[in-house]
Sequence to fold (469 residues):
Amino acid sequence: MYILQALDLHKSFKKTKVLKGITLQLAKGEVLAIIGPSGSGKSTLLRCLNRLETIDSGVIEIDGEIMVRNDPKGRAVYSSEKDIARIRRKMGMVFQNFNLFPHKSVLENLMLAPMLVQRIDAVKAKERALALLDKVGLSDKVHNYPFELSGGQQQRVAIARALAMNPEIMCFDEPTSALDPELTGEVLNVMKDLASDKMTMIVVTHEIGFAREVADRVIFMDDGLIVEQGIAEDVLLNPQHERTKTFLSTVLMAR
Amino acid sequence: MLEYILSLLPTMLGGTVITLKLFAFTLVMALPIGVVFAIARLSSLRFLNYFMQFYIWVFRGTPLLLQLLFIYYGLGIVGIKIDRFTAAVLSFVLNYSAYLAEIYRAGIQSIDRGQFEAADVLGLTRFQTMTRIILPQMFKRVLPPISNEVINLIKDTALVYAIGMSELLRVAKTASVRDFSFIPFFTAAIFYLLMIGLVQQFFKWLEAKYDYYR
Fold:
């Protein structure tokens, strides 16, 4: 039983085709890493899965509920806003640039959505927020504002903020790309902890080492298509396609 | 001379009260209406968007004095009778809302797209996103241009002499002509400087208050 299924996703920006028929499944508790060169469409794919972008055609089903499907002419038709809002609440999202709310303290960043969206009272929301901040190792930054934190700390807050909504699936869009190299470790460690808690995760990343260590499955994308996918070890250590080999050698060479 | 200035004060203060009343009424309405107009101007509903563009063009594109005369005398000619103060407030609110809307729009558009997206993926409604995330950050950024508008407003209130209201500058002019003296104008200048000095201090305080984050 899959918690997320996407079938033949197509997406264009103006005349440029960004996704040219992507099909993927995700099992509950699975960690999927999506790798590929920039411009391959991997971030767009992730953003389509939680409707930050809309697809032109294809089917997306999350936790047994249809978010979008094709009409008889093969054009994507989205479910009602109300249904989509409910479906999207099952997904948490972590951005490359953190996107914390700068005018809110760390604690307020975590309490805002549970109180406004899930209508949880302040006491419970605070309790949950403090537990999550403890989990990501930032109990001492509760009352700080985002600008007072390092990039790595901000990203850990962003992860905690997404977790505060109790999502079924966590999506990460290049979560360490905006960080100084010495700060990526603390973020990746938090993500590793999540994976060992059996959180279902989709991670768009350039961190090949992380993908090898943490991901169950890896998808390699290039030019809007999935070129190769499989068990992480197989794809990363023994790639079959020429483009995967070239990409991995350039990425590993750069280290 | 001091005695002369003191003799001017009662009428000057009377004029100042009219100036301040107009100022306060205009701000209380134009500041929030400008936000609504800015959001309408950014709407994806084409009708609303174009209507706001037209509105802003008309009210920035004609003199405030003309708008004031039109609303008081023009409407009177077609039989809509409103008193002077209402006409003054109405024209000032309509005019200042147009300018403020453009300042707010720039402020909203300067907020990083990621803020909208973060609120969106957390499940906030559009209304919640605006009121909780976007507008609070916008206000901080637009404080300097808003203070310009507020200061201009104090000085623009002098225009209501044209519909026969005895605001500060008109009172000064009457006294000056009557007594053949420049001192009433000098006194009026001091009054304006005091009011605007207070406004500046208020905005300085507001900016400091918002300085708790970057």
In short: The radius of gyration of chain A is 18 Å. Chain A touches chain B through 25 residues (CB under 8 Å).
